[in-house]
Structure formats: C-alpha cells, structure tokens
Design brief:
With 219 residues, this protein is an all-beta fold. It is built from no helices and eight strands. Strand 7 and strand 8 form a beta hairpin.
C-alpha cells in the first residue's frame, strides 16, 4: 500500500473530489522557497566551440568523430556576473542579466573506433525582464536550470568540437519565506506493500509519526 495504491483514507495527497474547505483544521506556518516570477527560453545555438578535457579512456586516437553532448549528470549550471537593473518607471520589475555556464559530457568515437567521453561546458549570456520584489531581510535569489543537447558537431584541432544544439533555460526569482497556509493536518501514512507480517517493535507501537500539541496556551 502507498498514498496511491489501495488507499481510500481521506487524509492523503491526491485529487480533490469534494468541497476543498471541508477538513481544514489549522493554519500552519511553513518555511518554503517561494517563486515570485519565472520564465523559460528555448534557443538553437550554432557555432559553439566545446574544448575537451578529462578524456575517458585517456589519450584517444585523433581525430575524433563527434556523437553528442549533453548536461553532466549531477552538475548544475553556474551563474556569474548577475545584474538586477530595476526599471525606473516600474520599480518592481527589472532587467535580470547573467552569464550561465552549463557543464557538459561530450561523447565521441576516436580514430580506432573506440567510444569515449570528455568534459566541456557552454557559456551563454541571458537577459530577461522579470518581477523582482523590493529588498527585504529575506534575500532574493535568482535560480537557473538549463538543459543543452546536441547531436551535430565537427572536430577541430587542439581537442575541440564545434557544435549546434538546443538550449533550454529556466530562470526563477525566489526567496526563502515563512508562509501561513491552511492545512488538513498530518497525512495518514499507509504501511509499505513489502512489510513483513508479525514484526514487533517494542516501545514503538504507540509512538506517533508526527509531534502533537494537545492545546496551545497564549501568553
């Protein structure tokens, strides 16, 4: 069993089929990352030179034949030279410019037919007009996600490829805030499907999953 498998308990996440106000029992203060604005762009980048390093296996036989390039798994893009230039007649809006560097894994075939990989990166400039709240004790953060994929490229001397690829960039204006939201209380966590019957945990059988407050005395 899980939240979505053979579970009819009303205290579970999922689609609402009744009045959403029914069951709200408290106002909860939560710390979250709030997104104030966001935009996404998709462009075709041509003539991008990808210098290669970190060959695996080492010392491939030249020349290399290009296969593909894509984001490095686990490596997020980095943002530098970030400038938030507020628009004079609309102070809650700004031109947000930055330099984005996306780490890449490049796949190739060497002169002996051996498939290998190398590391590289693509660096681009971005400028977008976005809603940016006024300064506060909770600092504004600009978060960027980027995906680059390419299957078109040619080898150039000194261990590099010149490629054409698709770049998709997601920019968010965020801040960590304390937010007061209506709540249905704690969910009922169902037993896992793989639980073995008959297991006993002395002293833990009656332990609640979440902390409780029987009453709140205001002072």
């Amino acid at each position: 069993m899980s939240f979505y498998i053979n579970n009819t308990n009303p205290n579970r996440p999922g689609p609402m089929t009744s009045n959403p106000v029914n069951g709200i029992c408290e106002k909860v203060l939560i710390e979250i990352t709030k997104v104030f604005d966001a935009c996404v762009s998709q462009t075709t980048e041509t003539g991008i030179v990808l210098p290669l390093s970190g060959f695996n296996p080492a010392n491939p036989a030249l020349p290399l034949t290009y296969i593909s390039a894509q984001n490095q798994v686990g490596n997020e893009p980095t943002v530098t030279d970030l400038v938030i230039d507020r628009i004079e007649n609309s102070p809650n809006y700004a031109n947000v410019s930055m330099t984005i560097t996306v780490p890449l894994t490049v796949t190739y075939r060497d002169a002996n037919g051996v498939i290998g990989t190398a590391t590289s990166s693509i660096t681009i400039q971005k400028c977008s007009m976005l809603f940016v709240p006024q300064p506060s004790l909770s600092p504004i953060d600009i978060k960027v996600n980027a995906i680059f994929t390419s299957q078109i490229g040619t080898y150039t001397p000194d261990n590099a490829f010149t490629v054409t690829g698709c770049l998709q960039v997601l920019i968010k204006v965020t801040a960590v805030v304390d937010l007061l939201v209506p709540s249905y209380g704690y969910p009922v966590i169902p037993p896992c499907q793989a639980c073995q019957s008959g297991s006993v945990c002395p002293g833990l059988d009656d332990l609640p999953l979440y902390p409780t407050a029987a009453s709140v005395t205001r002072i």
